[in-house]
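_Backbone structure tokens_
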Amino acid sequence: MNWAPALPLLAFTFVMLVLPATRLVNDTFALRGGGYGLDNILRVIDNPVDRQAVAGSLGLGVVQATLASLLGAPAAWLITRMRLGGRAFWLSLMNVASNFAGIGLAFGFVALIGSTGMLTLILGGLFGIEDPFPSTGSFTGMNIVYLYFNVPMFVLLTLPALSVLKDDWQEAAAVCHATRWQFWRHVGVPVLAPFVIAGWLLVFTWTIGVYAVAYAVAASPGSQKLITLQIGATLESSVFGLERAAVLSVLLMLLAAGTTVLYRLSLKRAQRWL
């Protein structure tokens, strides 16, 4: 009876996560002629387009996680030091921005900075500036779009953790004649680093798994090679078998599992300060 309240969630998890994941693993190793082997994986490895997609997703994830950390960590620190009214305002803004992703966000950026976007036309008409912004389907353009929701998400993920750094510690360091630099070097950064790393890992995992935004902002099919876009292209095409999509999906699962393990290790190290 103690498990009764959790049974609906466990059943939902089994149907929506465990069974599909099992099917994907089976399709990854199942051969068309029968039996199991590594042929499907080797075909993906030998395909230069798939290799570009893997490299593109990893590169985008690393850049996004790094930029979100560099921009989001100072913002989260400042929000924790605000009064209640200012903190509530910025938290509301961050919540809206972090959840406004998908087709709507992509359309907004295309309408704003696309080749015929409002801001692009204004800069071209008033100042004669041609192509002031990179294509939304390029690597740089996608980074601009992704930052809109990744930075707020990083702030929301790390904001509770940053409050662990107490003002009393700074006062104690000052009493011991420690400079502000010494406090951050020996206390502040070591305490906050595991939380920032954990946020970096979550943003990385989220970025490599995004499909709707990447599909919508791409200037043309194949303009930017990503794992999720390759999976979608495989499912829409009759040329490739579903084995290719299964292999790429399992790769995403493995990346997510690996980052989750590292995330748990980072939090375990950080919890000693809680």
Observations:
- The longest helix spans residues 48-80.
- Residues 112 and 209 are 25 Å apart (CA to CA).
- The mean pLDDT is 86.
